[in-house]
Amino acid sequence: MKVQDKYYRTVWMEDGVVKLINQPLLPDKFEIYSSKDYQQTAQAIKTMIVRGAGAIGAAAGYALAQAFFADEDRKKAAEVIKNTRPTAQNLFYAVERVLKANDKEEALKIAIQIADEDAEACKKIGEFGESLIEHGAKILTHCNAGWLAFVDWGTALSPIYRAIRKGKEVFVYVNETRPRLQGARLTAWELSQEKVPHAIIADNAAGYYMKKQEINFVITGADRIALNGDTANKIGTYTKSVLAKENNIPFYIAAPTSTIDFHCPSGEHIPIEERDEKEVLEVRGVRLSPQESRAKNPAFDVTPHEYIKGIITEKGIFTPDQIKDLATD
Ligand code: MRU
Questions:
Q1: Fewest CB atoms within 10 A around its CB: which of 105, 150, 231, 324?
Q2: What pLDDT shows up at residue 329?
Q3: 236 CB less than 6 Å from ligand 1?
């Protein structure tokens, strides 16, 4: 995708250095972060300089390739990388694939393949998903499942970009997505770059607009999909899915098949990341709450499959109960 007329990917590698769009700086500053070794790349995943399932996966693949080139203990490096964030399946998918390499050249080749496949899958998700978007659609999305969360195009936002390019009118309601505000900061920034009409709403406002039928389509990304179609995504997604069902609004998930955990039978087995309470207690370093108060900060929740109308992948659009059949592909 383009930023000020220049084509960028969210994650790439140049002369052994992993390059990342520095996401905590957005939307104020657009800057590229350079990571020279696997430890630094792992730290960038942990601190969310790079975030979003596909982008984390691509960065993890490149991180392990860096370890191969530095002649580090691969198994140890793989463990360090896997211990950065527990929920996004793409991270584990990428590490396991690169770990199978016999030498550094092959490791790099696989890491590049993973990034390329991610971009290509997201493009296809856009093509399949666009068919679901009607001219005049009023769409709700949660968190950021755009190109900043993947190598290119994104998942939930990819069908929207495609619809806009085809001349359809759409309006996007962007949940702000407390506590880290990926919606208000990142999705809003992406949509502005693409000139997609949108409004940021407080997370609590979605039900108000759904009840009035001012939202008629909901699409979000996924961080891990279980075999029965239960889907982990950013905290607050479950609430939106229940509201969508209550108001007869179709609720779709968009994700590449690399987000499916074929060893995970259902949502209750998906590990949910618990992050620092400061993210809830503070906004940009300013404390909002009494010093005595503690906070809880789960980063994801699970939307049960019965709330999901369809899952848009690079292989087509599936009902949740068809997800298990993709395992044999
Ligand atoms: O904690 P993050 O920002 O890495 O969360 C991941 C997400 O961006 C969302 O849950 C998103 O909707 C999934 S698509 C990558």
A1: 105
A2: 52
A3: no
2-123: CATH, from 1.10.620.20, 3.30.460.10, 3.20.20.80, 1.20.120.420: 1.20.120.420
Structure tokens at 179: 């506590």
User: Per CATH, is 131-328 categorized as 3.30.70.270?
Assistant: no
- Which of the listed residues 143, 150, 225, 252 should we mutate to test ligand 1's pocket, taking the one with most ligand atoms within 8 A of CB? 143
Cα 256 to averaged position of ligand 1 atoms, centre (Å):
13
State pLDDT tens for residues 18-43. 999 999 999 999 999 999 999 999 99
175 and 236 in contact (C-beta within 8 Å)?
yes
Quick check: helix, strand or coil at residue 205? helix
Q: Which atom of ligand 1 is nearest to the CA of 144?
A: 8
**Predicted confidence (pLDDT) per residue in 37-82, tens digit:** 999 999 999 999 999 999 999 999 999 999 999 999 999 999 999 9
- Locate the DSSP E strands across 142-249: 170-175, 198-201, 217-220, 224-225, 231-234
pTM for the full predicted model? 0.97
Instruction: Determine the residue type at 43.
Output: Q
Q: Is the CB of 221 under 6 A from ligand 1?
A: yes
Q: Where are the chain's structural domains?
A: 2-123, 131-328
Buried residues in 212-230 as b, exposed as e (16+ CB within 10 A)? eeebbbbbbbbbbbbbbbb
Q: Ligand 1 centre and the CA of 71: distance in Å?
A: 32
Percent of the chain with pLDDT over 70: 99
**Per-residue tokens: 316:** 């087509």
